[in-house]
Specification:
It contains one helix and no strands. The protein is rod-shaped. The protein has 66 residues and is mainly α. It has one domain. The chain starts with a helix and ends in a 9-residue tail after the last helix.
Length: 66
């Protein structure tokens, strides 16, 4: 009678592991998307500051854009 109980415990553990792995994948995907968003926003603000620097301090650098 102990064998079915062991099997049910194993199946519960396997199901718990599947749920844990699924939640882990979801968390990693969410963290990845947050990191991508932060990188994009940082790059955008950095480009704005570089553009501001070029237009205010060194307008002659804009000649390559024309």
């Amino acid at each position: 009678m102990k064998v079915p109980q062991l099997n049910s415990t194993q199946s519960q553990q396997q199901q718990g592991a599947k749920v844990f792995i699924g939640l882990l994948k979801l968390t990693m995907a969410l963290a990845f998307l947050i990191i991508i968003g932060l990188v994009i926003s940082y790059a955008h603000t950095n480009l704005e500051s570089v553009d501001k620097l070029i237009t205010t301090a060194k307008p002659w650098l804009l000649s390559w854009r024309v």
